[in-house]
Structure formats: structure tokens, C-alpha cells
């Protein structure tokens, strides 16, 4: 079980010292038999008369425990603390602290995450194979897509390792081995790189649409720096700060004040992408309306389709980010619905994106068959860009920022 950020290692030691001071200051009845007070690592148990049971509120800092419930510790008739028959060690009974309904809900949510990551990983790998196999698809635009897919697939694979080998085993986080710490750092690197490769996608599409003359090869080289280089700098600063300040306990599962080092660059990249979305749609609609037949009194077919697809983008892009910052308090009736919705929208994002791609391909096929204009090149470019916008901004609807995805 993982300790919360409010009880890091030095605070845990402070709690132990405080317990010792309290026990030293209390004087039990010398004529009575009692079990000596003790600190079991989670709670400070007072001197307890023989043959009685002591009760204390459940530790608030233990994930899955309900602080409104009580744990207990039995003092036997001979004045010794009860020992568990299986281990032979002194035992505090915290079994009543576990909220079984909450535990069951969280296990189901983790199951949704794992299933979604597996399905999405299969979809990503198949996409990478297809994009790499066909030589006709080897162009700068596809290169950017491939790097984005590679970032996503690696991140999904690392998440699966995290859910398989760290989350189910509290002993792993308590032992705090170097392997789980390294996994945390690498996982966060690819998590941040997901956002920056999405920023690279937005920057590429925006440049392609609004700039008349530029070198795609040079642009792609710059995007490599954006997608892989910037996250490396960010994660290096984050890792250095946590190590220098000793914030390295529990496989780094604990929330940290240094999480802002990851958070704000991601928020900045999302804000830029939102700007790119608005400006790309604006320029695209201008191009579509300027095509022959676009100045009719009735809206052109392309404009109608553009608005229709844009309306589809708003819930995919906006609603997810309006909801996720407002996480219900633990125990709130809406918490289960929030967690399930977040897990489904996050882990199955690639599958949703693939389904959305099929819709866009069908849309473009129909318009290409129906529309016959003199200015085919410009109109076709606009449609291809529109297809990439749908592809990119569906991927842009991703799981909540940074550490909400790691629980």
C-alpha cells in the first residue's frame, strides 16, 4: 500500500518519534497488567490493559482505507500483544479499514485501463507496420504520424508493465527498488512525449496550411527536437529535482510538488494545439469557400461537412478536458462514474481514433467523387489536411494530464 504525499519518509519518522514521546509521557497503573504501547508503522497504539482490545481510527494515508472506520489490536490475558498464527508476529487488525466496494471499483477501473491499453497497443503496432511497409506512404507527414504512434505504443506498453508488476504488489513500492524507479521515469518521459508529438502534429499541419514556402524535411527535423528532445529536458529536470530533495520513496508513486515540472509544459502544449485547431479550421474553411462554387448563397458541401466534423471534434476535444480537472472527492457518489469514464476514454483512445479515421476516409471518398472543380489541387490539399486534422485531434483527446494516469 502506498503512502500519500502528506506522509513521506521524513514525516513517517516524525510520526514514530511523536508516538514514542507520547508513550514515554504516559504512566500506566503499576499494579495492573497491560500491553506496552507501540508504534506499528501506521498507528500509535497506547498502553492497553490485559484481556482488552484497543481501537484507533484507520490511517488516512493508506490507499483503500476508510478513515472513518477503526482498526483494532488485541492485548491477551498475559499482557502481550496478539500474534498472528500464520506469521507468528505481533499483528494489528486493519481488515475492517478496507472499503471493499471502493476496492472492487478500483480493481474494475484498473481492468478497463489494462484492456484498453492492450487493444490500443495492438491497433498502434498494426498502424506502424502498415505505415512502414508501404513505400508510397513514406513522406514527411507520415513520418510525423509514425513517431507519434511509436510514442503512444511505447507508453501503452510501459503502462501495462506498471499495472502488471507494480500496482498489484504493495511490497514492490515499499522495497522501492531501482527498477521500479527507472520504470517510473521512463514511463513519464514517454507520457510527456505523447503530448509533444501531438504538438508536433499540430505545428506541422498549421505550417503546411498557412505557410506557402517551407522545407518539409527541415520542419520534420525540428519536430524531432520538439517530440523527443523537449520531453527529455523536462524529465531530466523533474528527475534531478526529486533525487536532490530525497523525494524518491514508494517507487515515486507519491504525488510530488515537482509534478508541476511535467504539468505546465503539457498544459502549454495543449493550449498551443487548441490555437492550432481554431486557426486551421478557420483557414481551411476559407480555402474551401474560395474554391469554385464556394461563393454560392447556400453553404458549400465542403463547408457543411467541415462544420459537421468540427462539431464532432468539440466533444472529443473539449468535454474530456473540462471534466477531468474536476475530480470528485474520494467517496463522492460520482467518483465511480468519473473513474470508469476516464479509464474508457483514456485507454481506448486509439481504437476510437481508428474508427473516426474510417469515417473521415468515407467522407473524403464521397466528396472526391461528387466534387469536380477546376481547382482540384487546392481542394484536394484542403481535404487531405482536413483528414489529418481529424486524425490528430482525435489523438489529442487523451487521458488526463500527467500523473492522473498513474494510480
UniProtKB/TrEMBL annotation:
Keywords: Cell membrane, G-protein coupled receptor, Glycoprotein, Membrane, Receptor, Transducer, Transmembrane, Transmembrane helix. Residues 18-101, 109-361 form the G-protein coupled receptors family 2 profile domain. Its main location: membrane. It is a multi-pass membrane protein. Gene3D superfamilies: GPCR, family 2, extracellular hormone receptor domain, Rhodopsin 7-helix transmembrane proteins. One of its GO terms (cellular component) is plasma membrane. SMART domains: HormR. It is found in: Cell membrane. PROSITE patterns: G_PROTEIN_RECEP_F2_1, G_PROTEIN_RECEP_F2_3, G_PROTEIN_RECEP_F2_4. SUPFAM superfamilies: Hormone receptor domain (SSF111418). It holds the Pfam family 7tm_2. InterPro entries: GPCR_2, GPCR_2-like_7TM, GPCR_2_extracell_dom_sf, GPCR_2_extracellular_dom, GPCR_2_secretin-like, GPCR_2_secretin-like_CS. The chain crosses the membrane at residues 115-134, 146-165, 195-215, 222-241, 261-285, 306-323, 343-364, 384-402. GO terms for molecular function: G protein-coupled peptide receptor activity. GO terms for biological process: adenylate cyclase-modulating G protein-coupled receptor signaling pathway; cell surface receptor signaling pathway. Belongs to the G-protein coupled receptor 2 family. This is Calcitonin receptor. It comes from Cacopsylla melanoneura.
